[in-house]
Amino acid sequence: MTVKVRRQRPRRRVFWALVAVLLADLLALSDTLAVMSVDLGSESMKVAIVKPGVPMEIVLNKESRRKTPVIVTLKENERFFGDSAASMAIKNPKATLRYFQHLLGKQADNPHVALYQARFPEHELTFDPQRQTVHFQISRQLQFSPEEVLGMVLNYSRSLAEDFAEQPIKDAVITVPVFFNQAERRAVLQAARMAGLKVLQLINDNTATALSYGVFRRKDINTTAQNIMFYDMGSGSTVCTIVTYQMVKTKEAGMQPQLQIRGVGFDRTLGGLEMELRLREHLAGLFNEQRKGQRAKDVRENPRAMAKLLREANRLKTVLSANADHMAQIEGLMDDVDFKAKVTRVEFEELCADLFERVPGPVQQALQSAEMSLDEIEQVILVGGATRVPKVQEVLLKAVGKEELGKNINADEAAAMGAVYQAAALSKAFKVKPFVVRDAVVYPILVEFTREVEEEPGVHSLKHNKRVLFSRMGPYPQRKVITFNRYSHDFNFHINYGDLGFLGPEDLRVFGSQNLTTVKLKGVGDSFKKYPDYESKGIKAHFNLDESGVLSLDRVESVFETLVEDSPEEESTLTKLGNTISSLFGGGTTPDAKENGTDTVQEEEESPAEGSKDEPGEQVELKEEAEAPVEDGSQPLPPEPKGDAAPEGEKATEKENGDKSEAQASVFRASVTRFGFRVPICTLSSLCGLLFP
């Protein structure tokens, strides 16, 4: 009997080897697909992840809790975070840092720095002369900036997420308060870089909450606009937001749900922390009263005792939300003396009476910015831990005039869930159902410049101009282009915040400098000398307000146009050069818009604002830079390179006058470089008002 042995063909072996390699690569890739979100609150943080097979889940910390205290204890060779640091606060209050987010992007003379020092006198804040900000002086050898401390916390949150996901994570979406300005947002980004995180987006916490609410109620959204008010009172601040939900038609995916931020109001210092500090002061007074006549020291002079009282005040506030009275008791408060005292809810409400009067303030601000009335609001939903205080709900219910307040959302985790949904949408590794997000600018930004004008023959004067780049409650992200048509030499312009009249006097002091930066342009005059025979189309400055609400100046360029003869047989060298540059910068096709992003705004002219009308002949254009082709078929602007201004070519367009078959307009752009940005207040590393690297 003959047995035939069939040998495997070499091609088949190569095929299966390639399949094995491909599967191994896919398995390795799946181990790095996870993304995370960090809902960074004043008192605690929530971390959420998305990974293959695990859609939107809250991370448990090492104590198996769903939220982690934002506390750091720093020693010479040790660092403690979360609950471990909270337990160290009693033993070593000076080295235990909390609520340090209130110092981000603040100069040393900011009222919030003085307020922080008054609230936590155990911390030594030292002045940083280079950055004009403050440091935490832990010891002679140890000092840390608030950004460095936040970087430690973000790195700890990353380790929690990686342990929970059992794989490395680098991409993250981080929530920030909606009232953070440019300096504060850049401070958070700097802290994230220290932690080794790639920030996909800084999302406003109110927007993240609204997104979470909409995602889980997608079926309830239709073509009829629904106006929902979210009232978020957390530990450190209060924010009121009016959101409109509606089905809209998109170019990429047809009819999709959309949320649009219509109005925002806030109070930077109204929150649970201030209530706890009032309670702490009340308990300290009761303890001193009990020891009166014993020649005892004031308990306020003992940092450890005050740390114990603050912890007890936090517990007392929570208990009084459900009970009419409660017994505060601390064993060995000071000098081995126990403390015990009864506190009623009525006493607590009297201590915080002025705080409760401020509860309706953010509601009125939000309605005013949205230009809406309470009758147009369908529902008011409570968010944040401090809204559990009965008196807050009572005052708010009276202010909004509704039958009841909505409590159909997880007040603690909604922002974290909305942020991680956005992280999955921004990540290339996941496919999520589209949900259009249209966030709104809180602080308007404008450009100011001064130029010499001739009012009469021989009479010259200086004229100051203002042009709004990004208006209040306008959508972002978006790009804007401002064109200076009357300059043929080097000049400067200023980027400032716009009208902040909606802020009170105290909020303006906390806000800080209203000047963002001064831009000095060099090379304008040289470009005109280089192209004397070409027609100038102005100096174009391209601005970008990105998804994180951070402003940048992408590039500045001088644009010239001329007529060249176009031979039917052969294209001219100049035309070839213009077309080649356009194709290199992607002029022919446009990338697909992200599904969870702001709708692209077509290029259009805006009317001047915040300044007098231009004089005859003055032509300062302000345009929105579109990512999709505009209706007239002109070329879209190419992606902006980072760094200094780069040369750019535009596709040739036909001229109306003359023979169209022979004459064609070619556009050339001469590079205009930036140098030596002068920041009036802060140095290059300061973050306070600094815009450009």
Portion of residues in beta strands equals 25-35%
As residue ranges, the low-confidence spans are 1-8, 23-30, 580-620, 626-668, 673-693
Give the distance, in angstroms, between the N- and C-terminal Cα atoms: 83 Å
Structural class: alpha+beta
Radius of gyration: 30 Å
Kindly report the name of the CATH homologous superfamily of the largest domain. Answer: ATPase, nucleotide binding domain
Number of strands: 31
Number of H/I helices: 16
* Total number of distinct structural domains: 4
Query: Looking at the structure, what is the overall shape?
Result: globular
Main sheet: strands, sense, barrel = 6 strands, mixed
Q: Provide the CATH architecture of the largest domain.
A: 2-Layer Sandwich
CATH topology of the largest domain: Nucleotidyltransferase, domain 5
Q: What percentage of residues falls in helices of 4 or more residues?
A: 25-40%
> On the 0-100 scale, what is the average pLDDT?
80
CATH class of the largest domain: Alpha Beta
Description:
The N and C termini lie far apart (83 Å). The chain has 4 domains: 196 residues, ATPase, nucleotide binding domain (Nucleotidyltransferase, domain 5); 105 residues, Nucleotidyltransferase, domain 5 (2-Layer Sandwich); 82 residues, Actin, Chain A, domain 4 (Alpha-Beta Complex); 130 residues, Substrate Binding Domain Of DNAk, Chain A, domain 1. Helix 4 crosses helix 5. The N terminus and C terminus are likely disordered. It is globular and about 95 Å long. Strands 1, 2, 3, 4, 11 and 12 form a 6-stranded mixed β-sheet that branches. The protein is α+β, with helices and mostly antiparallel strands and 693 residues long.
